[in-house]
Design goal:
Order of helices and strands of chain B: HEEEEEHEEHHHEEEHEHEHHH
GO cellular component, one term (chain A): Arp2/3 protein complex
Largest sheet of chain B: 7 strands, antiparallel
Family (chain A): Belongs to the ARPC4 family.
Strand order of the largest sheet of chain A: 1-2-3-4
Shape of chain A: elongated
Distance between the termini of chain A: 18 Å
Number of strands of chain B: 12
Largest interface: A-B, 48 and 48 residues
CATH class of the largest domain in chain B: Alpha Beta
Strand content of chain B: 15-25%
Oligomer: heterodimer
Radius of gyration of chain A: 23 Å
Number of helices of chain A: 8
Keywords (chain A): Actin-binding, Cytoplasm, Cytoskeleton
Protein name (chain A): Actin-related protein 2/3 complex subunit 4
CATH topology of the largest domain in chain B: Yope Regulator, Chain: A
GO biological process, one term (chain A): Arp2/3 complex-mediated actin nucleation
Number of strands of chain A: 4
Shape of chain B: elongated
């Protein structure tokens, strides 16, 4: 991992560790209601200053804290069109199934790709460290892009090979060390192990 | 690798012919079906004449902007007759609306595995017709002199349409023939996946070991040879893929392979995009399951740890003590029992004189009932 990225993730981790000090706080507006104050923003005294951590213009993290809840919004790097498409697909896929994750917000905050809402109840039920580890999504997008490109390369190789070899018998003329590797890679890519 | 190999034989035609061939009783069939949107088949078999099957086929062939149902050339007829000599006959004229009609004699098909081979070859009839047309074009362009082409500057690229909205162009260049495919996709995600595939195709084609394959290029703008062609063909969202076919690729057996690969390039790319999308979906689902497990485990870990501690205590109680410890325990128990039974009288050998029948210490008795002894209150 590059050094700036490592520092960026370390900064987010440390900030989250400090910010995840949440406690139960009933709603001041409505009796017997308990609402995440960071979403409503009705009482300024319950809100802390939001923290914006930027790696560059394309990657940033916004952490908004309140007394009983915490909202984390991430903007993921999208270097090219393929990463753009994969990021949108993956994050939309997760957001549509937000109920399975409990801490995920169905709709990201404007200007960001994905948002999490963590309340004091989540902190009671789950371990803080694991929640922080869960938030590292960029690695998944990078791996997905790599496997799509690998798959495309293998398919292109197979297509062009058809022009060279008329019969399957001639396939033995292909460099021996490369053919088994290609077939193995294709199988691994299809199985999703690479 | 299955996905690189698109079958020449029509699966529906093959299945229907096999069904008729294997049927114990004569069957009545009059069936129309389409494949890939532009290839049409008609199969007819009647009970009265159950040993003969009529197979008609046609494809939409559009060349140079003129929509025609082109007649099959003589060379193609010869190729078709060679598929199964004695088993099929070409019906002239073909059925109305069709390019070719074959008369199939079921009784003359040899038994066993040979029958399946012959039926498979008959099912490849459409691939044979399409390939032969493109083969003739490529041969014609290949053997054309460069000088004659230079003199005749009005030679335009040949526009070939085997499937609606999927035209491709073939034109002659010095020492090679170039086939250009304008690529269009409806979905934006398909466009991105296709473009990344084309870039990989160009990169793989430029490798040393692929030197014998046709050189492949991708460009977002059309090549200048296509100037003057219809605008709707030159407006694309995924660029233009071109293959440079040399004389090496059109000689002997390679011609058939080259032609088949060019004809199925669109289908190949679409199939790859479909498989890639399916793969992305599977991968996302798998990752989602792992993330959910990670979160569920964090909440269950603490509960599990508490339960584990309680369980350990219970288990420890029920656990068997090792034999040596067991013996020690039994000895201790025996000792305590003896001490108790001796009424707290500890017998020490040699100390008989000090043995008392009474207790050494008399403990006061405490009871819930108030003492009967009265007391005087101190002032």
């Amino acid at each position: 991992m590059a050094n700036p990225l490592r520092l960026y993730l370390a900064c987010i981790r440390n900030t989250l560790e400090a910010a995840m000090c949440l406690q139960n706080f009933p709603c001041q507006e409505v009796e017997r209601h308990n609402k995440p104050e960071v979403e409503l923003k009705t009482s300024p005294e319950l809100l802390l200053n939001p923290v914006l951590i930027c790696l560059n213009e394309a990657e940033k993290c916004l952490i908004e804290t309140s007394i009983n809840s915490l909202r984390i919004s991430l903007k993921v790097k999208q270097a090219d069109e393929l990463e753009n498409i994969l990021t949108k697909k993956f994050l939309r896929f997760l957001s549509m199934r937000a109920e399975a994750f409990q801490v995920l917000r169905r709709k990201p905050v404007q200007g960001y790709d994905i948002s999490f809402l963590i309340t004091n109840y989540h902190c009671e039920e789950m371990q803080k460290q694991k929640l922080i580890d869960f938030i590292d999504i960029e690695k998944e997008i990078t791996e997905l892009k790599l496997s799509v490109n690998t798959r495309g390369r293998l398919v292109a190789t197979e297509f062009l090979k058809q022009f060279i070899y008329v019969d399957r018998l001639h396939i033995q003329h292909f460099p021996h060390q490369e053919l088994p590797a290609i077939l193995l890679c294709m199988r691994m890519v299809d199985n999703g192990s690479c | 690798m299955l996905m690189a190999y698109l079958e020449r034989s029509s699966p529906t035609l093959k299945e229907t012919l096999l069904k008729i061939y294997r049927a114990e009783k004569p069957v009545e069939i009059d069936q129309h079906f389409y494949e890939f949107g532009s290839i049409q088949y008609h199969i007819k078999c009647s009970i009265s004449d159950s040993h003969i099957v009529y197979v008609s086929t046609s494809t939409l062939l559009e060349t140079q902007g003129i929509v025609t149902v082109k007649e099959t050339s003589g060379h193609t007829y010869e190729m078709i007759k060679k598929i199964a000599v004695g088993v099929i006959d070409i019906v002239d004229p073909p059925k109305l609306g069709f390019q070719l009609t074959l008369k199939l004699y079921l009784g003359k098909i040899p038994r066993g595995k040979e029958a399946i081979k012959i039926i498979t070859r008959i099912s490849e009839i459409q691939a044979l017709i399409l390939s032969s047309q493109l083969k003739e074009m490529l041969k014609m362009l290949n053997f054309q002199d460069d000088d004659s082409q230079a003199m005749n500057n009005s030679i335009r690229p040949i526009r070939i349409v085997y499937h609606p909205s999927e035209p491709f162009y073939v034109f002659k260049q010095p020492e090679k023939i170039t086939a250009v495919f304008p690529m269009n996709f409806k979905d934006n995600a398909d466009v991105v996946i296709a473009v990344s595939f084309f870039q990989e195709l160009v990169e793989v084609g430029s490798r040393k070991e692929m030197g014998k394959a046709p050189q492949c290029n991708w460009s977002p703008i059309p090549p200048f040879q296509l100037r003057g062609e219809p605008v709707q063909d030159l407006t694309t969202n995924s660029g233009f893929v071109s293959f440079d076919i040399t004389s090496r690729h059109v000689e002997g057996k390679r011609l058939d392979k080259t032609v088949w690969n060019l004809l199925n390039f669109y289908a190949y790319v679409k199939y790859h995009i479909k498989c890639s999308r399916g793969y992305i979906q599977r991968r996302m689902r798998k990752r989602m399951d792992s993330l959910v497990k990670l979160l569920v485990n964090t909440s269950l870990e603490e509960e599990a740890a508490q339960k584990e501690n309680e369980r350990c205590k219970n288990v420890k109680k029920r656990m068997k003590v090792p034999t040596s410890q067991l013996m020690m325990k039994e000895r201790c128990k025996e000792m305590t029992r003896r001490v108790k039974t001796s009424k707290f009288r500890i017998k020490i050998n040699g100390c008989a004189r000090f043995r008392f029948s009474q207790r050494w210490i008399s403990l006061p008795r405490f009871s819930a009932k108030p003492s009967n002894k009265s007391y005087t209150k101190l002032d």
